[in-house]
């Protein structure tokens, strides 16, 4: 039987700034381990993260430059209380106002920000809150993102569901009453190619009325194919918009190419998708700059593609399998709340999703202020919905991507949202 274990003391590099730890598995062959160390320690051994790899489509777009320009010139310490008060007093929020609302000067104004965000949310979304669930169909990954449990060097149980298993899992989820699903994979074209994902989407169409995907970025024709299979929207986390930091966190694989990832949402819309979602993983780099870049990425896309449904997520780092010391650094719940309220004030029409990475108490509260979508019945493992929903343990499941904080079932979430005075919505889109 294969040994599963971790020599934490054998080689552990602590990156104090990131609080992210490299860990070696004792099942890695020596030559693989040597390569891993070289990649971690020697930047010259890594590929150019700004250069496209073969097969990656390049589109003409000026949005990247606009976002990076704004981000690099953002000195959030320069904003004052007067800037924040001015931003809060205005009916529409400019880019400058957004910057002020994300600055430390806005921290004492959280209450006022929350009240304004709540009013705008009510104006545009009423008291509704959407409920959906994610399903991970494979956890193979060819990338080395040092903060993620699915990374190619992490010693976890890998699994890819076959189509019968996918159908079974989806049926279990649909039987709870859920109507929207988000299909996720690790980022591996080899194990989860576009055709495989497309077939999974076709199965999902039988059970769900709204389908999102969160997979590796693909080219326009591949997004078009996936849309034809039934995908409504595409979520891509940029993780961090700080290209230098990105380089130090994504050491290997296609994901290493920052600009190809950045343009994913635009390629998805060019491929016919109805909606796109944006996000930075807060805690990886300077969260204020990342929040600014995320909001601006969505803003510029909204101006260029006004028909598109735009939404934002706001995840923070979570511990992973074999590394429970990963944390979101200086992004506490107050900071997270500030970012979410700033998003709402800057982009009143945008959907805002708050995932099960956050606590039940936080999600109950933020859904009344500015979030419009919450996940429920969540498992970040592979093929374990039945086990989690019904307590059966038939098949061996793959390991989870990260630890969740809010494990409420669909029924519990629905009931909690209703008790909080909100109207749970399971689907708002009808195909004719
Ligand atoms: S974050 Fe995504 S691409 Fe990176 S290791 Fe995890 S699953 Fe793979």
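-> sequence recovered:
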């Amino acid at each position: 039987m294969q040994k599963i274990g971790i020599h934490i003391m054998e080689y552990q590099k602590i990156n104090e700034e990131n609080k992210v730890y490299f860990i070696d598995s004792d099942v890695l062959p020596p030559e693989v381990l040597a390569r891993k160390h070289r990649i971690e320690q020697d930047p010259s051994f890594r590929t150019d993260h700004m250069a496209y790899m073969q097969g990656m489509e390049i589109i003409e777009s000026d949005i990247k430059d606009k976002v990076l320009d704004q981000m690099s010139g953002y000195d959030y310490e320069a904003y004052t209380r007067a800037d924040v008060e001015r931003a809060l007093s205005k009916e529409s929020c400019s880019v400058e106002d957004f910057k002020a609302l994300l600055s430390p000067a806005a921290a004492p104004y959280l209450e006022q920000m929350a009240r304004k965000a709540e009013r705008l949310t009510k104006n545009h979304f009423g008291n509704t809150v959407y409920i959906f669930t994610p399903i991970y169909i494979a956890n193979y990954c060819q990338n080395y993102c040092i903060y993620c449990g699915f990374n190619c060097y992490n010693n976890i149980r890998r699994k890819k569901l076959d189509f019968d298993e996918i159908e079974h899992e989806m049926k279990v989820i649909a039987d709870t009453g859920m109507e929207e699903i988000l299909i996720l994979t690790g980022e591996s074209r080899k194990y989860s190619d576009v055709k495989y994902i497309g077939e999974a989407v076709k199965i999902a169409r039988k059970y769900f009325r709204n389908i999102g995907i969160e997979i590796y970025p693909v080219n326009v024709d591949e997004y078009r194919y996936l849309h034809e299979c039934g995908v409504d929207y595409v979520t891509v986390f940029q993780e961090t918009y700080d290209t230098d930091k990105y380089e130090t966190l994504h050491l290997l694989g296609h994901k290493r190419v920052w600009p190809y990832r950045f343009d994913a949402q635009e390629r998805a819309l060019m491929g016919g998708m109805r909606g796109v979602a944006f996000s930075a993983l807060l805690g990886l780099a300077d969260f204020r700059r990342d929040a600014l870049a995320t909001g601006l990425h969505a803003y510029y896309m909204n101006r260029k593609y006004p028909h598109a449904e735009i939404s934002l997520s706001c995840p923070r780092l979570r511990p992973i399998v074999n590394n429970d010391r990963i944390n979101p650094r200086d992004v506490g719940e107050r900071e997270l709340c500030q970012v979410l309220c700033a998003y709402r004030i800057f982009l009143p029409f945008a959907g805002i999703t708050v995932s099960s990475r956050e606590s039940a108490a936080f999600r109950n509260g933020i859904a009344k202020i500015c979030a419009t979508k919450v996940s429920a019945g969540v498992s970040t493992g592979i093929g374990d919905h039945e086990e989690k929903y019904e307590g059966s343990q038939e098949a061996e499941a793959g390991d989870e991507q990260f630890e969740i904080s809010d494990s409420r079932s669909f029924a519990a979430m629905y009931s909690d949202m209703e008790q909080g005075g909100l109207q749970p919505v399971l689907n708002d889109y009808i195909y004719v």
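Residues 141, 143, 145, 148, 150-151, 186-187, 255 surround iron/sulfur cluster (CB under 6 Å).
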